[in-house]
């Protein structure tokens, strides 16, 4: 035991001598060659918002994935780098002057920082780039596109999007088509429509699952996979009044894709629906008549995911009943619908030919005289949309009545008073509006929905 104990003591003494020798030698110091930036950040923007920066060590680039607001240029022209973690020291500029964090820098353009390792030899140069939005993300921007070659005749028409094509039907045998794969331009081509009866209700067209569906006043239902040739659907003897909307599949509830509509049964209108993978139609339980104020014409639909993660299809349209407000309706299965009424004073005023969309995180309602857009968080309480989310407008200046009175400035919607329209939204979030009065076509999109996802 004593021998083992003495050997342990001897080992410790030898290690101590070795360590002392290293400490006493000026030739054995080994300084770090680490010349990397471990962390980077700038001062807060706006109301104390801190933007996270990504460090790409391979490319030696530092940048923010989430772009700063469009107005941030007026802040980052003189801002502090408040986080810069390195092992050695940092220089900047052509003269390689020592970088001092307490000095503000101009980050409107990329800058370069050079990191020097403690070994006095190793260096790495990083490019710092601060991304700033060039457009206001919350602005709805409109552009007038190529008008239809011939102004449509009086009466309602319908526009629909199918497989990257925008179709505008002017009758049961004629229409126009343009590709929207390049939304910057429209090139209209006349089309000859086949298979549609003369009593086809153009304003009943529903685009769903790469097909168009339509009904007739005589109760027939038809579909098309190319927008030009139409075929009859088997409705098991049901007389179809109109299609309402398509309901997408929902992973939460396990439901499949469903086509919804209204059919006539024993002298009353009832809700009906079918799984598009099945042949049979279903009627609502009890075969109860639809509510008197449920829309029957010019129906527009949108899809909203509620707080439980369940998809709801929401619609508005023209109703035969006299109503005091424009009220949306929603469903999850197409057979049971409920209105989205509100007990408050924040209902949406009555609109002629309303359309609805869940767009940019809010519900929006367009239509009526097209003077303002109404918005809602969950489709119940409605208010005038944000100033940036408006129709295209022109500036109207009214002089004061007297010399001392200031002039008043207003913005008047260019859509106001244009009359009947049809609206469609494509997969790139462009809103397409075609006007019946003059055949003009407008395209709009919320800026942030066009930003590329980093």
UniProtKB/TrEMBL annotation:
Pfam family, any one: DUF6242_C
Keyword Magnesium annotated: no
Annotated ranges, domain DUF6242: 47-130, 136-453
Transmembrane residue ranges: none
Keywords assigned: Signal
Keyword Transmembrane helix recorded: no
Signal peptide: 1-20
InterPro entries per record: DUF6242_C, DUF6242_N
Protein name: Sortilin N-terminal domain-containing protein
Organism: Bacteroides oleiciplenus YIT 12058
Source organism phylogeny: Bacteria, Pseudomonadati, Bacteroidota, Bacteroidia, Bacteroidales
